[in-house]
Amino acid sequence: MRFVHLGFDPDFVDYEQAWARQREVHAAVVADEEPDTVLLLEHQRVYTAGKRTEQHERPLDGTPVIDVDRGGKITWHGPGQLVGYPIVHLPQPVDVVGHVRRLEAMMIAVAADLGVEAVRVEGRSGVWVTADGRGPDRKLGAIGIRVSHDVTMHGFALNCDCDLAWSQVIVPCGIADAGVTSLSAELDRDVTVAEVLPYAEKHLADVLG
To answer: Does residue 162 have an active-site annotation?
Structure first.
């Protein structure tokens, strides 16, 4: 497996360009012309809507949204968020839920390394910090994937030190009764994508290797 860095602060990556790169790499991995690959990056600010997004979950203020072919609902990407697109062969028999669980395990392990207890919440994808004195259940990392020819696309987004105001104009991931958070918010210090990146690469290698 190889890791490819597409761009980080200050070289944020346009979503459409990254999506085109995903498709190119996916075709090459399917054809066994390139090895399993994880694209890692920070995006320019963008909202993307998965196939299950409902109209009332979209921004009410006219903010542009890019409709994409992954699972899941609407979410945000932007500076301060580590995004990873694992483009990897799934073992046979293909288990899509198993792939989601591996990405969740990776983010839980990264959070633990940094001192944040993140968990799975039954019936909700991604990783969470459970309700406490700071507020209700809060989503720390999101997952939305697609599988074609037994090779994955799209992936995960882990909030490091991003501005969480984006969540106020949409229903994040279609979940109205919970909040969003970041590693920085939970630890009361600045946790940058650059700090988180080596932990993410280590645990991605562990769960996907």
So the answer is: no
Among the options 40, 107, 160, 173, which is catalytic?
173
Q: What is the pTM of this model?
A: 0.92
Residue 134 one-letter amino acid: R
Picking from 160, 171, 170, 179, the residue whose alpha carbon sits closest to that of residue 79 is 160
R_g of the chain computed on alpha carbons: 16
H-run or E-run covering 96? helix 96-114
- 19: Cβ contacts below 8 Å, ≥ 6 apart: 68
Give the SS3 label for residue 113: helix
Kindly give the confidence (pLDDT) of every residue in the chain, 209 residues in length, as a single tens digit, with 9 standing for 90 and above: 899 999 999 999 999 999 999 999 999 999 999 999 999 999 998 989 888 888 887 877 767 789 988 877 888 899 999 999 999 999 989 999 999 999 999 999 999 999 999 999 988 879 999 989 888 889 999 999 999 999 999 999 999 999 888 776 655 544 555 688 999 999 999 999 999 999 999 999 999 98
Burial of 188 (0-12, 13-18, 19+ CB in 10 A): exposed
Ramachandran angles phi, psi of 51, nearest 5° = -65, -20
Helix (H, G, I), strand (E, B) or coil at 88: coil
